[in-house]
Specification:
By secondary structure, this protein is an alpha/beta fold. The protein has eleven helices and 13 strands. It has a seven-stranded mixed β-sheet, with helices on both faces. It has a four-stranded antiparallel β-sheet with strand order 11-12-1-13. Strand 9 and strand 10 form a beta hairpin. The longest helix is centred in the C-terminal third of the chain and has 38 residues.
Length: 400
């Protein structure tokens, strides 16, 4: 990238600490009435970004008050339920199964796929990497005394770096092409006997561009390796963009060689926070994701996810949102969002020095400035109630 910095969906830096540290807070001696508690919550939220008026480029995904009210009601109905036990809460088992079926169908599945809901994209990514690592160990990879490695591109989400750190793996990041997409040839050169997983992004978070999924999946298959498609941002946009003729590329399980896909529901699925999906081509792959333990006094403990307790509110609200919107509703929201993105791009193009970095495939853009004014612009917008993060490639001095 030639530009010094970009504005987009990245999180802004926290404010610097000032003054002496505050004394530890203590629990109030007496309770407060419900009305008073809620009033205090509302006062605290008054300084939050006004997402209802579109004042932020990340963090929240708002599709109107009617859906928001539905999410709140559905979340409340399920908030005391626990997805850890489908026997105790068969409603959650039903909701999760239907959500998985709906999502894998959108991602090119044909009915034999398996997966689970997670708390978000980071957990979905970590579980996909854990699955590949454990599968590889069973195949005799990596070689003794060598850490396994994950091959991705420089634009792959930091969740893969986090997963590699937690799981004792090496993350290898390949170069990008001029269009900001992963370079399959560069990734192929990094694959060796210790590789456990190959990654494609659909799209990458920094620039909203979809990698060449077929080429990356093919090089993984040629090496006898699994391929994960990170569609956490695009998984609930691209299928509907394809339905309305705004995008035409392949995405997930319709691509030979793709073994797993992650897609966040609490982004452009417009569900309540804490809802994502990681899905596998077969139930056999899902088996490598699970954790089981019986060497304790409580009997066998087995979970498919990182978490034991799984919030029933997030599962219930996700099912409610998808059932409420349906395919037509998502198509319309996608159409509106892409239309707004096109208007934004046209407006940015009319401002001297500003441009959209790359050629995004979906409603996710990074704004570049040849004059290096992005950070001052972001600061001034924040004063006016807008929250834009700044981002860049720190290894190339673009995030300083």
């Amino acid at each position: 990238m030639s530009d010094s910095d970009y504005a987009g969906g990245a999180a802004p830096a926290p404010p610097a600490a000032t003054g002496p540290p505050a004394a530890p807070a203590t629990l109030p001696a007496h309770g407060q009435d419900a009305a008073g508690v809620l009033a205090e919550v509302r006062r605290s939220q008054a300084r939050d970004v006004d997402y209802r008026r579109g004042r932020n480029w990340a963090f929240t995904y708002y599709a109107g008050e009617e859906l928001l009210d539905l999410l709140g009601a559905a979340y409340q109905l399920g908030m005391s339920a626990n997805g850890l036990s489908g026997a105790a809460f068969p409603s959650l088992a039903r909701f999760e199964a239907e959500i998985l079926s709906w999502v894998t169908g959108l991602l090119g599945g044909t009915g034999g796929e398996a997966g689970s809901m997670t708390s978000g994209g980071s957990e979905s990514i970590l579980l996909a990497v854990k699955t590949a690592r454990d599968w590889a160990r069973a195949q005799g990879r990596p070689r003794e005394r060598h850490p396994g490695n994950v091959v991705a591109s420089r634009s792959a989400h930091p969740g893969f770096a986090k997963a590699a750190h937690y799981l004792g793996l090496e993350l290898r990041r390949g170069r990008l092409r001029d269009d900001q997409r992963a370079d399959p040839a560069g990734m192929a050169a990094m694959i060796d006997d210790n590789t456990v997983l190959v990654v494609a992004s659909a799209p990458s978070y920094p620039h909203g561009v979809v990698d060449d999924v077929p080429a990356i999946a093919r090089l993984a298959a040629d090496a006898g390796l699994p391929c994960h498609v990170d569609a956490c941002v695009g998984g609930m946009v691209l299928p509907f963009a394809r339905s309305i003729g705004a995008w035409h590329g392949p995405l997930g399980f319709e691509v030979p060689g793709v073994t797993s896909v992650s897609a966040d529901l609490h982004k452009y699925g417009y569900t309540a926070k804490g809802a994502s999906v990681v899905a596998y081509r077969t139930a056999e792959w899902l088996g490598w994701q699970s954790f089981a333990h019986d060497d304790w006094t409580g009997g066998r403990y087995e979970v498919p996810n990182l978490c034991g307790t799984r919030p029933g509110g997030a599962i219930t609200a996700a099912w409610a949102a998808m059932r409420y919107l349906g395919h037509d509703g998502y198509c319309e929201l996608t159409r509106q969002s892409l239309q707004a993105t096109a208007m934004l791009r046209d407006g940015l193009a009319a401002i001297d020095g500003l441009h959209v970095a790359g050629d995004p495939d979906i409603n996710l853009i990074a704004v570049g400035d040849t004059r290096g004014r992005i950070r001052p612009i972001a600061r001034e917008l924040r004063k006016r109630g807008w929250v834009l993060g700044t981002q860049g490639d720190a290894s190339r001095g673009e995030n300083k």
